[in-house]
User: Which sequence fits this backbone?
């Protein structure tokens, strides 16, 4: 699939490597002349794609323009058609990507593609259904809900009052409560000369079947990959699912939990209230996280952890008991 999804993003203009280099700065050390028309993660790549790599390691996929650190045009594959050396690859990528794409839901220009609404769907008169959206059989769209450009709402899915859904596809039988925000931009910035520079969040949110999301919860779209929530997962009120997260099937997430960017949560994981975690953490299938756990590292499948920083549950409880006994002795 070409990235980003054209249902949600509009290509402003194709760029030549020379023009892209002027926007991003740095030195164009190789010019293959292939126009840039998409973006991609460096490992996946794609014909016509803009990619960047910050370290001289890992797999590098095909690209129309690959951005690398200054002076580090390492043994590049032949399918990297053009190569741009810069001081800060992520910053250069952010500038070029912003010149390539804009969000249809955020640019203020109406798309001519009509929305498709099933005759059996119930859409409240105050709800806003944007062009290109698809509302399937039996779906219910509540008062003042906003369905963005190209959004797909599956059969029998219920969208609560004042919820907003953008840059997303939802499966069937989901229950989205009041005030939920799905598909807003992830928190992605990089330092620039004049302060923080926004990194375009060009991914989407992909939600499976029978997913429940509680009131006030937010699910951010991805940057270079999609945020995903598997079938049967249930998320409580006032939670945060950050960009690029992969949440498995039948996961239970209690209130006030924050899942940081690019975390992977396996099937059947259970999280108590107010769990927090660092980014890029993997939680193995079937793991249990006690309320208010603070995770700094991966959790093995079936693991049970608690405390901050989180540690095996038995060890945590023993330490809590030991501290309690010590306090009693001092009394």
Assistant:
């Amino acid at each position: 699939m070409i990235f980003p999804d054209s249902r949600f993003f509009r290509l402003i203009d194709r760029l030549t490597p020379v023009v892209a280099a002027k926007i991003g700065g740095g030195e164009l050390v190789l010019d293959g002349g292939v126009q840039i028309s998409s973006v991609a993660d460096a490992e996946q790549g794609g014909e016509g794609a803009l990619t960047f790599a910050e370290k001289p390691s890992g797999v590098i996929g095909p690209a129309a323009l690959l951005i690398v650190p200054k002076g580090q045009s390492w043994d590049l594959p032949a399918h990297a058609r053009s190569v741009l050396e810069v001081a800060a690859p992520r910053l250069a990528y952010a500038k070029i990507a912003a010149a390539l794409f804009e969000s249809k839901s955020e640019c203020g220009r109406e798309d001519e593609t009509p929305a498709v609404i099933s005759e059996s769907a119930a859409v409240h008169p105050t709800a806003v259904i944007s062009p290109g959206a698809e509302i399937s059989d039996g779906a219910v769209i509540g008062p003042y809900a906003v369905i963005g450009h190209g959004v797909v709402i599956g059969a029998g899915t219920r969208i609560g009052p004042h919820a907003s859904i953008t840059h997303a596809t939802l499966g069937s039988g989901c229950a989205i409560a009041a005030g939920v925000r799905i598909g807003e931009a992830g928190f992605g910035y990089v330092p620039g000369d004049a302060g923080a520079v926004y990194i375009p969040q060009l991914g989407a949110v992909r939600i499976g079947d029978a997913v429940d999301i509680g009131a006030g919860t937010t699910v951010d779209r991805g940057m270079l990959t999609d945020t995903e929530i598997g079938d049967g997962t249930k998320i409580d009120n006032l939670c945060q699912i950050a960009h690029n997260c992969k949440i498995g099937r039948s996961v239970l997430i209690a209130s006030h939990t924050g899942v940081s960017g690019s975390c992977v949560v396996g099937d059947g994981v259970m999280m108590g209230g107010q769990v927090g975690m660092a980014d890029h953490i993997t939680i193995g299938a079937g793991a249990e996280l006690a309320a208010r756990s603070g995770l700094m590292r991966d959790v093995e499948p079936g693991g049970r952890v608690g405390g901050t920083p989180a540690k095996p549950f038995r060890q945590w409880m023993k330490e809590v008991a030991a501290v309690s006994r010590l306090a009693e002795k001092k009394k």
In short: The two ends are 66 Å apart (CA to CA).
